[in-house]
Design a protein that fits this description.
There is one protein chain. The protein is α+β, with helices and mostly antiparallel strands. Strand 2 and strand 3 form a beta hairpin. The N terminus is likely disordered. The protein has one domain.
């Protein structure tokens, strides 16, 4: 969402991501990745409440979750007992934020510093 302006419409999962002309500061990119992973975690909880399992892909989450235009969220694993994901920002390649929830989740390390967190904790590079 642009600061001070109306919210941007949700991005279709098939819409290509193109970097903007302005560079997004890394601190803002981390904020966007954290926000998207928190939204992803809520979408997974909703999906599990409806289906008894976590979604194994972003596509399976359907209308429950759309990441920010510049952020890609990769579902690493989603099963009956857990899920994990990694978020990256198009203007900051090689950096990421990660999240793992539950017993069945694979611990996912961040790209640059190989950081991992406790279940339900979002961790990011260079924080």
């Amino acid at each position: 969402m642009a600061e001070g302006g109306p919210p941007a419409p949700p991005r279709s999962p098939s819409e290509p991501i193109t970097p903007g002309a302005a560079t997004v500061p890394y601190a803002r990119a981390v904020q966007l990745m954290r926000t998207d992973l928190a939204s992803y975690m809520s979408a997974q909880a909703s999906f599990r409440a409806d289906s008894g399992t976590y979604a194994s892909s972003g596509t399976r989450l359907g209308q429950r979750f759309y990441p920010t235009r510049e952020v890609a969220v990769l579902v690493v694993v989603g099963n009956r007992t857990g899920h994990s994901a990694q978020a990256t920002h198009v203007q900051h390649p090689g950096h990421s934020c990660t999240l793992a929830v539950g017993e069945g989740a694979l611990s996912v390390a961040t790209l640059k510093q190989r950081r991992t967190g406790a279940s339900g904790e979002i961790v990011c590079d260079d924080e």
